[in-house]
Every structure is written in C-alpha cells, then in structure tokens.
Amino acid sequence: GVEVGPQPQGVARADVLDKMRKIVKHGLDFVQLFNEGKEFPPCTTEVFKIMEKVDYPRNKNGEIIAIIHPKLQDQDWQPVKNGDPLFLTLDGEVIPYQGNCTVYPTFINEAAYYEKKQAFVKTEKIKLTAKHLRLPVS
C-alpha cells in the first residue's frame, strides 16, 4: 500500500495526488525493469521504524490536558532529543520528551487519530540493506 500525505480528511489536494502518481509510476517502472531481467545492485537506505504510539497527556477522567507544542507541530520526521518540547498544557507548562535516544515523530496532531488516543507516533531512523536483485533465469 501507498499512503501519501499529509492532507486533511475529505480534501483532495492536487500536489498530494501528483506525489502519489509519481510513486506509483516508479513502482510500475521497477516491476517492468525487473521483469525485463535488469539487475539491481545492492543498496542501503534509511527508513523510519515505528517504536510506539504516543497519546496526549490526560487527566484522571481521560480528558486531554495538553496540546502539541508549537515547536513540534508540522515537524513530522524531524529529530526530537531528550528535553525537546512535546506538549503544552492548557496552563502553559511545557512537557518535554524524556528519552535516551533521538526519535522522529510522525502523524503529529492528525485529526483522524484523536479518537484513537494518538498524538503522534515515535519512530527511529534505521538503515536497511538489500542484496542485489535479479529475476532468476529459467
């Protein structure tokens, strides 16, 4: 599957549709070249691996008591280090990230995830290596 965004629910954006078309075209080009017998060399690429979903801070009644900090808003895939701000309480208190490694939040403050109790998803950046790839000759 291919998920392309961000875009608000129920909105069709031309720029996002164009990105999706390009991604699908690259995928189809790869399949065609692979089927024609092209050999692809080994490669390494960085990806983001999901660590955990993070909920909004809540009170004992389950009500949200803090919002995404302005410095985190619209910063999907950007590094967050120990002490960086994550949330801002309605009283103005900053709630920082407390962790021993750099994380890369994504799906930050997405409207579709409020009901799922998800403020963002913490990811880690890792490298994946692929061996050469070629269609076996029969």
UniProtKB/TrEMBL annotation:
<dbReference type="InterPro" id="IPR050178">
    <property type="entry name" value="AspA/AstE_fam"/>
</dbReference>
<dbReference type="Pfam" id="PF04952">
    <property type="entry name" value="AstE_AspA_hybrid"/>
</dbReference>
<protein>
    <submittedName>
        <fullName>ACY2 Aspartoacylase</fullName>
    </submittedName>
</protein>
<dbReference type="InterPro" id="IPR007036">
    <property type="entry name" value="Aste_AspA_hybrid_dom"/>
</dbReference>
<dbReference type="GO" id="GO:0016811">
    <property type="term" value="F:hydrolase activity, acting on carbon-nitrogen (but not peptide) bonds, in linear amides"/>
</dbReference>
<dbReference type="GO" id="GO:0005829">
    <property type="term" value="C:cytosol"/>
</dbReference>
<feature type="domain" description="AstE/AspA barrel-sandwich hybrid">
    <location>
        <begin position="44"/>
        <end position="125"/>
    </location>
</feature>
